[in-house]
Amino acid sequence: MKKLTSGFHETSLTSNRMNKTLPVFIVLYVLGDFISSILYYNDVIPNRNWLILCSLLLSETIPLILVLGYIQSKKLGEKFNPKKYIVNIGWQVKHWIKIFILDTKRKWLSIIVLAIMSYVLILVVETMMFAIYPGQNLLQNNISTNNNGSWIKIIAPIFLAPVFEELLYRKLLPSVLTNIFSSAINYKIARFLAIIFAALFFVGQHDLQLIPLAVGYFANALFLQKIADNSNSLTAPILVHALYNILNLVLVIH
């Protein structure tokens, strides 16, 4: 595992910066999600494709971009300035694109192996849970699949969700919760609880309707956290997460 996760670009954010970034991220996410919910339930946008796109932009993409600009501004010690903020966003986006390309070239085999391990883990856990809860198989068959907005459903899991979710659930949230819990309890216990809570929030975000699926996602969240911790990197879990989603989409389509 250590050999597979070594050599990725290390992501360094101070505790103070993460403590300040997380509330901004959550506020932007909740606000965007609230607005997208209003659009969804009131049919303000009749076209389903555009509705899904607007929801993704408001709840994930825009908050992520704004947070990247916020991190860079704080790193440079700059006060808020709209022009500089936009420049900082552009710098961060270009910087991370370069890192993703470099890490993919250097660690492509490790990414493939880890993504397959992730897929097998979820498959095994879900199979075991469906054996324990056989009634959930019937529920799974009755859950309708919405094929509207299919092109967005392909783009989002590959390019948007992995970056947003890994930054929030594998870096910011566990780190901040660890800092909070460790003020009252042993650090190792605090870290363990922080990772568990972050994984539960990750599962909750996906609004899974079946127990086996939720347990499978929870196991995968812990696996991705292990990758993030071993590599001290964000690109490692992001690239593995993205490739897992690609594998999942290919198998679902076929």
Q: What oligomeric state do the depicted chains represent?
A: single chain
Major β-sheet annotation: none
Q: Share of helix among residues?
A: over 70%
The total beta strand count reads 0
Taking the alpha carbons of the first and last residues, their distance comes to 31 Å
Provide structural commentary.
- The chain is mainly alpha-helical and 254 residues long.
- The protein has one domain (2-253).
- It has nine helices and no strands.
- The longest helix is centred in the middle third of the chain and has 51 residues, at 82-132.
- The two termini are 31 Å apart.
Give the arrangement of secondary structure elements:
Blueprint: H1 2-5, H2 15-42, H3 48-76, H4 82-132, H5 135-142, H6 150-181, H7 187-205, H8 211-231, H9 235-253
Structure characteristics:
254 residues; mainly alpha; 9 helices; 83% helix
Short description:
This protein is an all-alpha fold and 254 residues long. It has helices at 2-5, 15-42, 48-76, 82-132, 135-142, 150-181, 187-205, 211-231, 235-253.
